[in-house]
Amino acid sequence: MNVAPAQLTAAKLREAPRLSREFFNRDPVTVGRELLGKLLIRREGRQLLAGRVVETEAYLGQADPAAHAYGGRTTRNFVLFGPPGHAYVYFIYGNHFCLNVSCMPEGVAECVLFRALEPVCGVEAMARARGIQPSPSSSIAQLRIISSGPGRMSQALGITRERDNNKDLTSRASDLWLADDGFYPERVMATPRIGITKAVERPLRFAIVGNDYVSGKKIG
DNA sequence: GAGGAGATCGTCT
DNA sequence: GACGATCTCCTCT
Questions:
Q1: Residues near chain B (nucleic strand), Cβ < 7 A?
Q2: Could you give the number of structural domains in chain A?
């Protein structure tokens, strides 16, 4: 049965401990799996927008033909070669921004791509940012297009390269961060990554089984 | 509901 | 000049 996402108050979001740099200073497969169920929070003025991470993908740096870092350091991907816990935002297909977080120690260009969120706070503002008019009677189908997909969730949270690229997501001063409110997904699964043409067979996409907000076809 | 194709522009070669 | 870690609209079933 489909249910509307459980909403969290701004007070709850402020209570939730931020993820530390050490959390991200690990391999992206571990980070990608453990990010499922965590909160991605954006401060917009006095308002908080937040979504629960329900889908990620791991990119294994210079060893991964599908990764932006595969060809080495460039002016675009330099953030990946920096310290862990930083945002790598890139523009794709002339329309969309995608958000990644750097993993592993400085010099190792591995990362996790955020692919989908379940909105849990500021849903109306997120919908407006997407050009959607939400209402109390909005169906799951209408709600899920707010943030089910890397481009959609970036638009919903106002994530752009200019504003967020190279931002330290573990800093207390950051207006974009990750937090742990104690939620733990019952079942997660690994599948091949989406939208790539190289190394397509590797099961490096992670998602919460049965969650309505996972992009693409529903899992489980 | 599923599948296909076009849009659109930064980045890299 | 070609390509791309996507999204949306349109058509067909």
A1: A 71, 74-77, 90-91, 93-95, 141, 161, 217
A2: 1
